[in-house]
């Protein structure tokens, strides 16, 4: 648990909000030499000055894709609501601390307020796209998403990016690792038979999650790139339809 010395309204209206959001969901990457001692899942609850709180959730892409992770959080919120409705006691439940945050006196006594610090300007940015069309051609779709994300951010396309696709069971498979300048022609436009448009994380349904009768006022998601010049594309099936959600993470450095 943590506390910050700014109000929720000021945080949401800040021009540099996106660069400060990672501080609400701190993540320590898996250690290659000692992976079994790293936490696969992290929850961080942060109380804002004057009321309101943020729930930050992190996990490794080795475990699940963002859409499956969001579905897990929604299921967790529903289960928590059912437990409360039945007046059941669940020991050590994480979400119970939301009630603790609603007690300003207790929070002030036990939590030290710290300022939110912006992440360095060379961090990566994740853009989300929705695609309608047939499943084939996912590599071309990934390249088109990377190109559009880079153009929107005004940055060069990453020299290398890895494409991962959901297996339908919450896991990920590496489709292909692509490198620019390897003699192959890269795609910058949407492949024929597909309709690609920008999307937002609210479309994934996380705003439907209700905790203690409250819905989130803001939802965001980002993926940490493994390298300063490397991008990551995650292809996810949007429910039972033929639509895909594709996240493209590209370095923000211009």
**Percent of residues in beta strands:** 25-35%
Helix content class: 10-25%
Walk across the major sheet and give the strand order: 7-6-9-10-5-8
Task: Give the integer mean of the pLDDT values.
Answer: 75
Oligomeric state, counting identical vs distinct chains:
single chain
Helix/strand order: EHHEEHHHEEHEEEEE
- Rg over alpha carbons: 20 Å
Tally of distinct domains: 2
Separate helix tally: 6
Q: What structural category do the secondary elements indicate?
A: alpha/beta
Instruction: Tell the overall outline.
Output: globular
Uncertain residue ranges? 182-187
Write a structural description.
The chain has 254 residues and is α/β, with parallel strands linked by helices. It has 2 domains: 2-114, no CATH class; 124-251, no CATH class. It has helices at 8-13, 17-20, 66-85, 97-101, 104-110, 138-153, and strands spanning 2-4, 41-47, 53-59, 113-114, 124-133, 160-166, 172-179, 194-199, 230-237, 243-251. The strands form 2 sheets. Strands 7-6-9-10-5-8 form a 6-stranded mixed beta sheet, with helices on one face. It has a 4-stranded mixed beta sheet with strand order 3-2-1-4. The longest helix has 20 residues, at 66-85. The radius of gyration is 20 Å and the shape is globular. The relative contact order is 0.19. The model is unreliable at 182-187 (pLDDT under 50).
């Amino acid at each position: 648990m943590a506390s910050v010395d700014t109000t929720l309204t000021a945080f949401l209206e800040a021009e540099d909000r996106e660069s400060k959001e990672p501080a609400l969901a701190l993540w320590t990457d898996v250690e290659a030499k000692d992976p079994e001692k790293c936490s696969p899942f992290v929850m961080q609850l942060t109380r804002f000055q004057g009321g309101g709180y943020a729930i930050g959730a992190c996990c490794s892409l080795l475990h699940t894709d963002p859409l499956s992770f969001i579905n897990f959080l929604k299921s967790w919120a529903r289960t928590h609501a059912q437990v409360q409705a039945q007046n059941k006691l669940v020991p050590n439940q994480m979400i119970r601390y939301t009630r603790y945050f609603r007690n300003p006196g207790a929070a002030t006594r036990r939590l030290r307020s710290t300022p939110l610090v912006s992440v360095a300007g060379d961090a990566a940015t994740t853009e989300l796209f929705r695609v309608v069309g047939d499943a084939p051609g996912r590599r071309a779709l990934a390249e088109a998403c990377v190109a559009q994300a880079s153009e929107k951010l005004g940055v060069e396309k990453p020299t290398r990016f890895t494409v991962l696709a959901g297996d339908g069971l919450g896991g990920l498979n590496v489709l292909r690792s692509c490198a620019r300048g390897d003699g192959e022609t890269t795609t910058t436009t949407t492949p024929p038979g597909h309709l690609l448009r920008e999307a937002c994380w609210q479309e994934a349904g996380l705003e439907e999650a209700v905790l203690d009768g409250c819905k989130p006022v803001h939802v965001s998601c980002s993926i940490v790139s493994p390298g300063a010049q490397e991008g990551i594309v995650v292809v996810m099936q949007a429910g039972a339809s033929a639509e895909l959600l594709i996240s493209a993470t590209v370095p923000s450095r211009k």
